[in-house]
Amino acid sequence: MEILKKDEKGFSLIELLVVIAIIGVLAAVGLTNYQGFIDSAKKDTTEASAEDIHRTLSAYAYKESYEVSACNSVTDDATMLTCLQGLYASGGPFENKDNPYNQNNTAISAINVATPHGVFHDPDTADSNQDCTASGNAAGVNGQVVIANDVSASGSSYDLSVYYCSEMTVSGSGTGAHWTKTKNTIQWD
Q1: Which long-range contacts (CB under 8 A, 24 or more apart) does 97-105 make?
Q2: What is the annotated signal peptide range for this record (predicted)?
Q3: What is the pLDDT of residue 72?
Q4: Binning pLDDT at 50, 70 and 90, where does residue 6 land?
Q5: For residues 179 and 166, what is the distance between their CA atoms, to the nearest angstrom?
Q6: Do 42 and 77 form a contact (C-beta atoms < 8 A)?
Q7: Whose CA is closest to 111, among 146, 139, 143?
Q8: Does some domain include residue 91?
Q9: Residue 48 sits in which domain range?
């Protein structure tokens, strides 16, 4: 039978505590970076949805076969979104998807509003830093995409703008959820 010598030893308590502390620091750094990655993915998803809707509306506006006249007389916001959804086959960009920030919130909506440029945040205008938590027509949530029809436009056409709400830093307003306009306004006869 062998007897263990007393000078054989394993890791000391201090060595184990140092290793555990190092693992804890690495985990905290990794978790912080992971959360930043998740937030960035949510913002990218929202922006991609807005860009997809803008591209689809632009394509429809420039094709003669897609008449929006059936939607011209619509004044109710929910009915306008339904009318736009009817122009596209099932599963299109107007179909309401899960909001990437909170699945209980609406991801896509439509609104009839006079001069949407003055209602929503538009980075092209220095003094228009509207945040998404404002009241009235500009009320929204992170991850929401809004198709805004300018009802002050004359004639029987749509002047559609697509805005999305996401976290951003705006000079004079700080960091928070703000509206951003995607590209140009679409004029659809």
Answers
A1: 97/49, 99/141, 99/142, 99/143, 99/144, 100/41, 100/42, 100/45, 100/46, 100/143, 101/42, 101/46, 101/141, 101/142, 101/143, 102/141, 102/142, 102/143, 105/141, 105/142, 105/143, 105/144
A2: none
A3: 63
A4: low
A5: 7
A6: no
A7: 146
A8: yes
A9: 16-188
Amino acid at 160: L
Enumerate residues 6+ apart whose C-beta is below 8 A from 118.
128
In a domain, 1, yes or no: no
Number of domains in the chain: 1
CB 113 within 8 A of CB 123: no
Say what percent of the chain tops pLDDT 90.
7
Tokens of 6: 């007393």
Measure Cα distances from 39 to 31, 58, 87 in Å. Answer: 12, 29, 32
Calculate the alpha carbon distances from 72 to 2, 11, 129, 143, 162 in Å: 95, 77, 30, 27, 17
Tokens 């009241």, residue located: 135
Q: Which residue has the tokens 């905290």?
A: 28
The DSSP code for 186 is: E
pTM comes to 0.71
**Could you report the per-residue pLDDT of 102-145, keeping only the tens digit for each?**
888 878 888 877 777 777 755 555 545 577 777 677 778 888 88
Q: Is residue 4 part of a domain?
A: no
